Amino acid sequence: MNEPNANTQIFHSVTRSFTKKVNLGNHDENRQYESVDFFASHNESIPIEEATPEKIKEVSERLYQLAKSEVELAEIEYLNGIKNGKAPILTSNDIAQITDIIILMESAVTTADIQKAVDVINERKGILNKKQLDYLRSVAKNAKAKTLK
């Protein structure tokens, strides 16, 4: 009989994903009948003794926002490449450096929540490049409009 080892730790696994299908005909008249799919999935294991409903909900929301942000950034990168016939505006390294800020903005409920993200941006101003700052400005405008509704 296989009994668990006393040193074996049990985890609760949380996985969230986000998918988006984009009709390329809306962005390029020569691609009328083409579409592209974007997908991201993230998983995190929580030690079972820490897996309260509140903790699971918190991790679930964070993973969902991370997957959603990753898909939206990939979509922007892809569509900008189509429109400009150039390399994407944000590299994967650029994206990795600002994902936490994007999540803060997209999960903002109040203008104070947006201000927290702006404070993080100001702390990193010397590190972030112009492309990242431009993108974060557009995300901030959308987040601000959402919180004012």
Count of beta strands = 2
Lateral strand order in the biggest sheet: 1-2
Q: Percentage of helical residues?
A: 40-55%
Helix/strand-derived category reads alpha+beta
Radius of gyration: 19 Å
Report, as a whole number of angstroms, the end-to-end distance: 60 Å
Show unreliable segments: none
SS field, number of helical segments: 4
Major β-sheet profile: 2 strands, antiparallel
Strand content: 15-25%
- Taken in chain order, the helices and strands follow as EEHHHH
Explain what this protein looks like in three dimensions.
The protein has helices at 53-84, 92-106, 111-123, 130-148; strands at residues 11-23, 35-47. The longest helix is centred in the middle third of the chain and has 32 residues, at 53-84. It has a two-stranded antiparallel ribbon. With 149 residues, the protein is of the alpha+beta class. It starts with 10 loop residues before the first strand and ends with a helix. Helix 2 (92-106) runs parallel beside helix 4.
Describe, in short, the structure shown:
This protein is α+β, with helices and mostly antiparallel strands. It has helices at residues 53-84, 92-106, 111-123, 130-148, and strands at residues 11-23, 35-47. Helix content is 53%, strand content 17%.
SSE arrangement:
Blueprint: E1 11-23, E2 35-47, H1 53-84, H2 92-106, H3 111-123, H4 130-148
Antiparallel strand pairs: 1-2
What are the defining features of this structure?
alpha+beta, 149 residues, two-stranded antiparallel sheet
